[in-house]
TrEMBL record, chain A:
It is a multi-pass membrane protein. It is found in: Cell membrane. GO terms for biological process: transmembrane transport. It holds the Pfam family BPD_transp_1. It comes from the Bacteria. InterPro entries: BPD_transp_1_N (IPR045621), MetI-like (IPR000515), MetI-like_sf (IPR035906). Its main location: membrane. The keyword Transmembrane helix applies. The chain crosses the membrane at residues 12-30, 106-125, 137-158, 178-198, 234-258, 278-297. This is ABC transporter permease. Keywords: Cell membrane, Membrane, Transmembrane, Transmembrane helix, Transport.
Amino acid sequence: MGRYLTRRLLQAVLVLWAAYTVSFAVLYLLPGDAVEIMAAGGGEITEVTDEQLDAVRAEYGLDAPLAEQYLDRLGAALTGDLGTSVQTGERVTALIAEQLPATLRLTASAGALALLLGSAVALAGAHTRRPWLRQTLLSLPALGASAPTFWVGLLLIQLVSFRWGLLPAIGDQGWQSLVLPALTLALPTSAVLAQVFAKSLRDAWEEPYVATALAKGASPARVTFRHAARNASLPALTVFGVLVGNLLAGSVVVETVFSRTGVGRVTATSVTVQDIPVVQGLVVLGAVAFVLANLAVDLVYPFLDPRVTTGGAVAR
Amino acid sequence: MNEPGTAHEPGTAHEPGTAETEGAARAEGRRPGPAVPGRPLLSLSDLRVSYRTRRGVEEAVRGVSLDVAAGEVVALVGESGSGKSTTGQAVLGLLPAGGVREAGRIVFDGTDLTRVDARRLRSLRGREIALVPQDPTVSLNPVRRVGHQVAEALLIHRLADRAEAAERAVALLERAGVPEPAVRARQFPHQLSGGLRQRVLIAVALAAGPRLLIADEPTSALDVTVQRQVLDHLETLTRSSGTAVLLITHDLGVAADRARRIAVMSGGVIVEAGPTERVLGAPRHPYTRALLRAAPSLDGARAVRGAGPREPGRPPLARGEELVKEFPGPRGAPAHRAVAGVSLQVRAGETLALVGESGSGKSTTARMLVRLTDATSGRVFFDGEDITRLGGARLRRLRRRVQIVQQNPYASLNPRFSVAEVIGEPLRACGVGPRRVRWARAAELLERVGLPAGTLHRRPGELSGGQRQRVAIARALAPEPELVVCDEPVSALDVTTQAQILELLTTLQDELGVGYLFISHDLAVVRRIAHRVAVMRRGEVVEEGDVERIFTSPGHDYTRELLDAIPGSRTRAVPPAGPDAAPGGRDGPWEVTTA
């Protein structure tokens, strides 16, 4: 177990480093542009003199050799300094920290909702005896995965808020305002989850150990929930770890559609005005979220599948 | 109801439509406890099952009538596709997807199982009728502790509460012959060997004290000595508890050893049924006779082997000297010594059989001998040349002279290739071209292995197991090799197919003079084809010698143990020495250096 954990942690650190390095390469090493944008204060590109450019280069340390720049910034990032926003002059870490809680609330509730919805649809689809219900349930995921997020959001606002007046359409006050955005964000994720989980459940039902369980006299419900579900949850869990990245990406659209504050909105604006230090900070944030989610998945894995940590020790 | 009816043995035949007995049975209802005297515990009458697939309806069971009395062991014997497993699944009401019972009755202790609802059927499954499944490696839930899986059978039928069930599970594991049952109960299936897993499955099946056990090929996935232990144990347990067993098996030897009565199935019908001695001693149906002829374990002396080594003066084709293979142990544990100093040689035109149980190192030894695996130490020679460190183009040239026939013809042929492409591939790798030439050669090889030329355009998926193995043999022969490694080439095949493939291998050896390194765990098969045998155990050759000497006067305890474990040995008299038996310890041109 200890060895398993160490390996996973090392991998996590490696992924973070790679994310930082690639984003550094993409954002800072592109010639010219970055400095000109910064010199113009992040807005429209105006006429800038060479002296101004040099001043900006000096200010941001861009006149140093590449390797030195990279190491300086990496060192700073390790101590929690991701630079300052070109547009507002605010520290990037402070900016993100300020916006993060709202987005965390949104993505966490969307993630939980996606798990719930996805598992429920898959389990109900695998369990029901009525062919029409099974067909309906198992075609839902394809529908959910193909509907664009912004469209679902607008549709929900139109129906639930405007026509029925049940929940607020915009803003971020109280849990009522969280329901629609979380649901919008959860739908595509839950659809993929349901698809993978339903497929794994179907496969698990074909396994010989299910025949053994049935021969013991187990009911279909017992087989689904006590035998098949746990085995089938493994691929679904792996997919969920990957989908956490999608939740963060989806928050860009959802926060915009529902006029919420949060990291997603910051991403939208800073990309529009090309506020490079902020964008890189957000890339790192995305990588951290992704790594943490997958680390969590890896930690849950041994509890679901004993073969992960006790493999190989076959006794005779 | 025509063929099976005529084949029925008096007393075992069950005439469908004996209305008064059925009616009486129903009136009594189901009674727990011993079965009513004179009434069979299980009675199948005119059972018909078909599979409805996209390609149409396939009749798997076409009117089977069979009785099993309380406490009786009845073997249902047949080859794959005969409908024997489907019959067993139908009794449990667990037909695979697409399987439909078209007609017939399944009466268990007076209850017609085809007329009760799903809930009632579930209450009988596990409680009254239990299953010992075929493949222990996949029949236990991998993520649950084995003790729990035994206890579950008790919990489902409310025979115990949680704590008591856990306790009884340990006792059941112990009774099923699992050593250290308390420790094992806390382990997961992957931490147990195949034999132990099958014992766990027996504990599961016997947990609720069923009156009928359906054992579907319970040991065919196990080594022969383990198979015997497990079957012995199963027999003791069922005999002491008076449990009836419907033993479904492809192995006539297993049936002969274990069953009081045998029913032979073919093409969905029972072609012959009767007491074991009668069916085996005086078979009436031609199919039974064919099956008996083909069964290697009951007919040890009928050898099909080739003429033997050619040019005795020539150096051996392949020779290994003190071969050792070590695999790194997990987490700094000492290295695992898979092969611990084996020396052997194969001559042209000769078959050397490498015999042993799984994990004995026989496959690793063969792989080292043909340079598919590098030896940790020791030397390998081919045709007098030291090939231990051969590499690059010279190693590739050697590849052409050594070919392999794998165990599983279902997995070893690329399903996307046509047969012509499969056979032509080694030729292409050896630079034989153009395509037209390769095709001509493939057609010629097909004819050689007894397949029609039309097979050339078909894909492996359209062929039977035996046909596929013929294709695999044709592929191995394509580059005209001098040595062919046959790694369990017939163990995935039915007995009649097995016999045909063995004969084919022998004919080819006589025609082409190839040497075979024949890896097998099945001593009966080995006796039929090998000239010499090397018995391996834990990475070492414990005994080596001429095949008849090994079989008639084995020198090592382990060899004797292996021989005793061959199914059918209970019914078989002392194996008669074959007409071509050589005296033991004979000094011949194929005498071998043993480690």
